Amino acid sequence: MADGLGENFVGSHFEKKWFSEYYIDSNNRAFLEHLAELDDSLDKIYKTLFQQLEDYKERTPVESHLDIFNATDVIVKRWLSHTRFICRKAIKEYKDELWVEVYNEAMKWCDWKIVQIDTRHGLNYISDTAQLRKIEVPVPLSTALPQVSDEPELTQRERVLIRCYKQQPAISRGQEGYQDYMTYARAGDRCSYPGDSDRKAKSLIRSIQKVLPYLTDAEKEQAVNEIDTIQAKFRNQL
Question: What are the helix (H) ranges across the chain?
Answer without folding.
Answer: 2-10, 14-18, 21-36, 42-59, 68-91, 97-132, 156-165, 178-184, 187-192, 198-211, 217-233
